[in-house]
Amino acid sequence: MPYNLLVNNISKYIQLNEAEKEILFGYLKSKTIKRREFILNEGEICKYSVFVTSGCLRGFTVDKNGVEHVLGFAPPDWWIADMYSLISQKPGILNIEALEDTEAILLSKANQEKLYREVPKFERFFRILTENSLVANQQRIVDNMSLTAEERYSIFCKRYPTLIDHLPQKQIASYIGVTPEFFSRMRSGILRRS
Fold it and tell me: Per-domain residue ranges for the chain?
């Protein structure tokens, strides 16, 4: 079954019987996203919650100077969406791009609402996901204001252990809020000390 990883992810928070799983599966759409392909562009309305089964997506914004700012990554077993746009159904600010060929499962906003009515425990599941996202984003804001770049990199390594040696350094630098040049010097210093 192609949805095993998703079912395991959901079962961390709610338990589904076979009938409920079948209802869920009826609302999902599988998608292959090629490397560098965008599944969401700034200014579009986010219509899907996206669950990654293989590959990696990144969510980022671009400032008025053309500088990219990575908000997050979605390796396998992670969800990603432009939460503001998905919830408000207004044009979003996030771009979501595949960093490599990626397999994902999409749940549309409309189908998510149907799922809430047919299997009410999904409201609990998505509330927990939303709360976890809110807490993580708030903590990241505090970290960016109060921690050193090395401390932020250490947190990145704990949050995304599978991505440390997998991502281009400029992506990690953008996520922790430093230039690629600074990141390279900082990482060299860390490696020399260890």
Answer: 4-120
Work out the number of other CB atoms within 10 angstroms of the CB of residue 174.
21
Phi, then psi, of 21 in degrees rounded to 5: -65, -40
pLDDT for 1 beyond 60: no
- pTM (whole model) above 0.85: yes
| Dist CA 52 CA 94 (whole Å) | 17
CATH number of 4-120: 2.60.120.10
* All residues at 6 or more sequence positions from 116 whose CB lies less than 8 Å from its CB, including other chains: 122, 123, 126
CA–CA separation, 163 and 168 (whole Å) = 9
Tell me what the pLDDT averaged over the chain comes to: 94
The answer to whether the CB of 5 falls within 8 A of the CB of 53 is yes
